[in-house]
Amino acid sequence: MTSPVITPLGYAAGASVAGADLRRPLEEDAMKTITSAWHKHLMLVFPDQRLSPKELIDFTSQFGQVERNDNVPYYRHPEHPEVLLISNKTTNGKPSQTRNTGRNWHADLTYTDRPAKGSVLMCQEKPEVGGDTMFANLYMAYETLSPTIRKFIDTLEAVHDITLIKGFSRRDPEQIKEMTRLNPPIAHPVVPVHPETGKKLLFISERIRNFVGMTEEESKPLLDFLNGHATSPEFVYRHRWSVNDVIMWDNRATLHIALPDFDQSQSRHMLRCSLLGEHSGYVIDNETSEISMKSALAAIS
Ligand code: OGA
Ligand code: MN
Question: pTM for the complete prediction?
Fold first, then answer.
């Protein structure tokens, strides 16, 4: 079989992969080509793939262990818990709880102690125009900071909070309660080393409440700056979907956002599978938050 052909789509991220049929297991050579393109371009597009949920899982499983989504147990495919339905379609007259998924800059599952290694998203239905998804390159974000800021953030940890998902409070109250219980605030390093490329990156997100040991008030200006910097247009690739695109991103080295730039009366229906990431977080205990409380009090006394 011929090797897949990789064509870059953007400077910061994105490449398309031609000549691979994702319904079949990838041969060793193809796997090597795709994996190294994934690490280099961070987000790959495989056009014209029409996969069943099972085929999507099988494809994903070639890159690692597939996530079962136990931390968000509501949006799963009825027969395949590994597949999340990201959709604005109504079922039994009820609006979908994922119709506004991904509306702020984020990486998947950072509110768990194992943020996803990668995610695979397949487009089954799309609006006539819009409904694009953007990706930001977090290596570039880190490398373009001044040495002084880099030194300051190198040892910082950030508190990721599921309730900061945009539109979270408008979801089903029972589901909000359970998902908040399942996912208490959790700290992850701000500058991790990517386990495969060995490079440092800026692991920021709009779902961070504060930095560990800093109050929210102290954290906010830095958070705003880092989020704005990481998502500067020059670090971003914008994907315009076609039906049957399968895309796969490196969730450890990118942020993404789903744009609401489309006619909401038209269907947008996607299937997502994620790869289980490494343990990197710890739940924020009382002692840690006490430090923040003390400095908050000091600031007002
Ligand atoms: C996701 C997500 C993006 C999109 O599924 O993780 O953020 O464009 N979706 O639907
Ligand atoms: Mn997402």
Answer: 0.95
